[in-house]
Each structure stands twice: as C-alpha cells, then as structure tokens.
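User: Show me a protein chain along with its predicted structure.
Assistant: Here is one chain, sequence first, then structure tokens.
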Amino acid sequence: MFLYNVTIGIDKDIEQEWVAWMKTEHIPDVLNTGLFLNYKMYKVLHDNDDGSISYSVQYFAETLENVVQYLEKFAPALIEKHKQKYGGRHVAFRTLLEEI
C-alpha cells in the first residue's frame, strides 16, 4: 500500500470555504481518477500564529504505478485548478510513503 500525502497550509479566513471545496470538488476529482482506493483528511493540531491552518489529505493507492500515473497524468491540472482558486492563500507540500 502506498500513501500519497498532501499537507496544505491555508489562510484561516478562508478555511471553511476551502474545506468544503476540498470535500465536494477536489477530493472527488482525485478519487474519480480511479487510481486511489480511499482517502483521509486531518486537521493538523498545533499552535500557529502565522494566520494559517494546516491539513493533511492522505490518498491510498494499491501500487506505486497508480501514484506515478496520477502524478504524471492528473496531478498537474488538479494542482493548477487549486492554485487558480486559492493562489497566494495556501502552501502545499507532498510526500509519498510506502507501507512496510
């Protein structure tokens, strides 16, 4: 099993709008690629005075090839869509993990 993790820091003043958009649009778009089995979304709990809130969105894939196909074929357009909607109001970093 492979875990594709996206950690996003989003401005506090648009947090609720962003969470709703992620749950109703972005995450379904990712899952509709058919390359991930499931997902989980977590709010990162920490004291942060920089005006942002962090979330971890975790997508589970059966094979590394599924993740690579997603990254090559689908991720660029979905990342661009996110940037167009929330550009300048978020930061993101991605991590790929393998279950042992």
